[in-house]
Every structure is written in structure tokens, then in C-alpha cells.
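Hey team,

Filing this mostly as a record. A colleague (T.K.) asked me to run one chain through the structure pipeline before their review meeting, and I want the input and output archived in the tracker in case anyone asks later how it was produced. No errors, nothing strange. Just documentation.

Input sequence:
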Amino acid sequence: MKLVFIRHAHAEGHFLQKPKEDWLRELTLKGRRQFATNLKSIKPYLPPPDVIFCSPLVRSIQTAEIVWESWKGAQLELITDLDLLDDPRHLVEHISILPHEGTYFFVGHEPHFSSVVAGLLGLHPEHDFLRFKKGGFLVIEGEVWDGFMMTMFAPPKLIEALA
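Output structure:
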């Protein structure tokens, strides 16, 4: 099983201030371009997906469509387990019943993804060891419950800033 978590661009804290508007907020043109550029740069390192799952928020759907354009053979599915308001344990449960031979991409949000990854690692969901940045990718390869490897891809601007 290979899992790829993709966090779309999101203005931190905006959801907490205006939840109804946040559900309908679209990616900006700049956000679309940056995400497409980031995806193009790391695509050679990503396994092709069988299924791309995305949350019901508009910008997640838009992000998932950009991903799907790179792998049109993949199924594109909307799932409520990626909803910002859903309990992250539901996505962990969903992952646990996926066929082991597949490759699955998940397009969603923070802090939801960090809680899901903590759950996969057997940590408390509120553990603050990892936070996805805008347009960040996390790849988990191997059998989730029988041992796996995690690789995080950071946006190029973040890597440049650290260098």
C-alpha cells in the first residue's frame, strides 16, 4: 500500500473565523500555479495513484483536479472522511480497509492530516510532531500496520529558505 497525503493551499486560521465561507473558497490563480509547479517538480518521485480521494471543500476539489490531470488513469473520489470537521480517526479506519496493493492519494487539510498521520503512527491525534505546509506532500509506502516508510516533500520555497 502506498498513501500520498497532499495538503492544498489554505490561509491559516481562516476556517475558524468564517467556516461557511471557507467551504466555498476557491484556490487563487497564484495558488493553482504554485501547486501545479510543485506537483510537476515532485511527480517523478511519486507513484501513480489508483484513487485520488479529496475532501468536499471547493479548493480541495480544485487541487485534486490538478493532481488528476497528471494521472488521468486514476479514479477521483470525494469522501467525507477528509472533511475538516470529521474525526481524523475515521480516515485512519478508511485507510485500514483499502486494498493493500493499491496506491491512494488524499487531498485535504491541516490540522486534520497531522492528526491522521499521528493516528497511523500510533500517537495521540493531538501530537504536534508534524504540520503540513501549503502544498505539502507526505508519502507513506508499505503496509500501514506491518511497517512502512514515510517521506515528506516540502514546497521548493521552504527548501530554499532552509538551505
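Quick notes for T.K.: The helical segments are 14-17, 19-24, 29-42, 58-70, 88-96, 112-120, 156-162. Residues 29-42 form the longest helix (14 residues).
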